[in-house]
Amino acid sequence: MTEASEDPAAQDWLSRVGSLRQWSKGGERAPNKPLLLLYALGRLHNDGSSRVVYKSDEARLQQMLEEFGPPRQRSPHRPQFAFSRMPGDGIWKVDTSDGAALRADSRADLRRANAVGRLPSNDEQLLHAHPELLAQTVQRLLQGNWPESLHSEICEFVGLDLKELLEPEAGPASDAAPGSSRQGQKRDPYFRTQVLSAYEYQCAMCGWDARLSHASVGLEAAHIQWRAYDGPDHPKNGISLCVLHHRLFDRGVLGISPDLKVEVSQDFNGRGTSARLVIELANQDIIPPQSPAQRPEGRYINWHQEQVFKSPARLPR
Ligand SMILES: [Zn+2]
């Protein structure tokens, strides 16, 4: 098999992707097409097909625009734009159940005709043949449209694991597990929603529950046992954390005890206000999930305690 970098078809695909316009005529950034494309690539990666059914995916596409698109003052986001216009860029095909023509940008037409969009089949085959091309495409779209701090959240939304895409051999950072069956594992796109909903959209450690309009911001669904080490996308292996506490949890500064109290590593220190706020979390009860059935399971907590948390924990003051 030839490398994607030597395949003219792959280069042609990347240049079509790269020529998507970044701005709307009104000078507003226009991530509609990149977002729809990322959404379809997530489908392709997880289901083997890039099919997006407008009627059933519309709400999700709308939400994605609200979360990662530009602020809208007057008119709402219109997921139908990219769906009906992207065929003009040579990277999208739309079929209708009755073969009917669609009025451009008509939400009603797309729904009524049960419009199904997908990547052109030869491009889909190309992406199947060159897994690294999928990663390059995703990276090109992300780098062309968003700051790096948002890349993993966008990928999570569409069911792609950015670290896994970029380092398929090594795995995230320095933690490739020997014999791990992580490769080939599919990310469950609903994990985030299930976990955040279980904790009522707040950080289980500090209660951070901020929103930008109605979308929560700076809040993430953390895996307790890392995916790289076969931690499942299951709510019992998840905990809702703000960005800071997620990072500190993954770095082993923070942990949780089997009786669901916050643990802070004795190795962690800092005199500033923010660091002191972290230290003060020691031995506090985490904000529990709504239902006991969603409580983190002991075996995942134990894994985190053993493999990640920098013990010993600070003693309560
Ligand atoms: Zn927090």
Please render the helix and strand layout as text.
Layout: H1 8-18, H2 32-47, E1 52-53, H3 54-68, H4 79-85, E2 93-95, H5 107-112, E3 116-118, H6 121-129, H7 131-145, H8 151-158, H9 162-166, H10 191-198, E4 211-212, E5 215-216, E6 219-223, E7 238-242, H11 243-251, E8 254-256, E9 262-264, H12 273-279, H13 298-307
Antiparallel strand pairs: 1-3, 2-3, 4-5, 6-7, 8-9
Zinc ion (ZN) binds at residues 203, 205-206, 208, 241-242, 244-245.
Any overview of this molecule?
The protein has helices at residues 8-18, 32-47, 54-68, 79-85, 107-112, 121-129, 131-145, 151-158, 162-166, 191-198, 243-251, 273-279, 298-307, and strands at 52-53, 93-95, 116-118, 211-212, 215-216, 219-223, 238-242, 254-256, 262-264. α2 (32-47) crosses α3 (54-68). Residues 170-184 have low confidence and may be disordered. It contains 13 helices and nine strands. With 317 residues, the chain is mainly α. Helices cover 40% and strands 9% of the residues. It folds into two domains: 4-154, no CATH class; 190-307, no CATH class. Bound molecules: zinc ion. The site of zinc ion (ZN) has 8 residues, from β7 and α11. The site of zinc ion has 8 residues, from β7 and α11.
